[in-house]
Structures
1.
Amino acid sequence: MAYVAVSGGEEAIEASIRLLEYYRSGTEKDLDLEVIEEKMSLLVDRVMSEAGLYDKRYAALALKQCEGSPDEAVFLLRAYRSTIKRSYDSRVADTRNMRLTRRISAAFKDIPGGQMLGATYDYTHRLMNFALQQEDAPALCRKIQQEVEHQEPAEISLCKRVSDELKEEGLLDQYAPDNQEPFDVTQNLLEFPAPRSARLQTLSRADTGFLSGLAYSVLRGFGQVHPTVGELRSGYVEIEVPYLDNADESIWIGEILLTEVEVFNEADDHNQLKLACGYGAVMGRNENKAIAMAVLDHELDTVGDFPAQNDEFVLLHGDSLEMNGFISHLKLPHYVTFQSKLDAVRKTRRENHDG
């Protein structure tokens, strides 16, 4: 493609950047990063997930810098991530040991360890709460802190996955053991067909809206139709790194909040029905994205002609950075290429008119 620079570019660009400050200067009240972290936590979680970097403070800073645009914030956070030295690869995080804050199943009423409704907007009335216009934030913070202080700490109980029992009964299809190192999509270009480790990484970092739209197409009949959420769980997972070169010892470096989903679908096993499982896991609280990811994980194992079953279509077009970057590039000057198209149109019309 032929791009050309904007004429007189430097002064115009500097003025354009100053105008961005104008749009951020509409009030003398500042937007504290802690406020963004705590009051806009779902937005922060989405940006961290799509950027592939778990850091709430930097995600909040990126959102503040770009007037709350998730696309721009992901761009900023990805760019910053690329400058960070990678010192360690963590141990495999076992989500069976997740410190749960929410756990539900749409497949079974009674599950081992019980269901935990946790925090969700699913049962709210979804009516505008105009009282929030006069909300007393310090009073709310004190009230919740007092409630927490008077509660007895709950005993942490580990819950194995709902799918474990189905696997024990031989009712759920399982992937063959794979001892290969996971494909690192941040260090290597995707090749097709992509290994499942690359697929899951790419889906986990993909644009939330894109994944949701593709999963919706599956539910409408452009795929395996209606899966069932076997289990959705959110909670904190401990992260450990190897201690020096010792393969048996680890150092605990912290924990991250994850949302993990398994969905079940019917599948055929030598003319016998069985269940197949799709898997999704994303940073933070982002349940719709995790469900959509699990739906698409299963679809990409299915042979068919629907868009959601084409790994190149799904994995290459869902990356929020590339997707928004390529659409954004249309705003750059394309004078040369457009003039070529225009000349071709004029020439054709003249020839048709003369003929």
Note: The CA atoms of residues 105 and 231 lie 4 Å apart.
2.
Amino acid sequence: MKKSLLYGLSASMFFALTFILNRSMNLGGGYWLWSASLRYLFMLPILWLLLWRQKGDQVILKEIRRNPVPWLVWSTVGFGFFYAPLTMASCFGESWFVAATWQLTIVAGVLLTPLFGGKIPVKNLLFSSFILFGIFLLQLQNTEGFQLGSSLKALLLIVIAGISYPLGNRKMMLHCPDNITTIQRVFGMTLCSLPFWLLCSIYALFKQGLPSQGQVLQSGSVALFSGVIATLLFFEATNLVKENPKQLAIVEATQAGEVLFTLLGGILFLQDSLPSPVGIAGIIVVVLGMILNSLS
């Protein structure tokens, strides 16, 4: 359990780069759909190279050919319906707003438990809600600068992403045999979500033209640090505890750390203002909620 928690927290640090760089690309005039598509287009060759060195690429390709429909469906849900809405949400708010609202996935992950034959771990749900209260405090200091319509659009997009990510991840864990490793599963899901991303890329090309060099470089960074390193860490963390719904909920709750890392990154790189006393209280509540969740 300690190893899975360490992996989960490390993943949240790398995942924070997603929110910071997506917001940076949006501020630089980059089209959000290119930001989303390029991440997975860059991820595919990186993951394939890692698998090729381990001689594991043929194993996963054989598994996909054996059972293609679940791979195509749940990979598109887990990666496509997760990241496209999340990237679009960066158009409607600062990095801290998207990162904080994204923590809805903590509660979504707990509520999805009955779909997989388990009971909702009530204690974990309570602590997850406690984390969300801390995130609400973090957002409270900045709500005056937002238009209600933009906030609601961002919220709807993030709700879709927050449900899709744990749903696709858990469904693929069920369909994957025990001999499939975490990196093979991530590669397989990236490959099977490729039709979705190619369609998005074609639309982006006709809508906005080619992406800028800066957007390509930043998307490559997101692909490496968030798409590959963070995803592998998080998927391995969930894979270690996949037989225990309570521990799975705890590991998924470690992603609340993204809020803290995004706030810090926003201050350092995007010149975000320091948290107010209410914001600091929110940070304390988030950290306390994560600790209580783990101890439970």
Note: The chain has a mean pLDDT of 83.
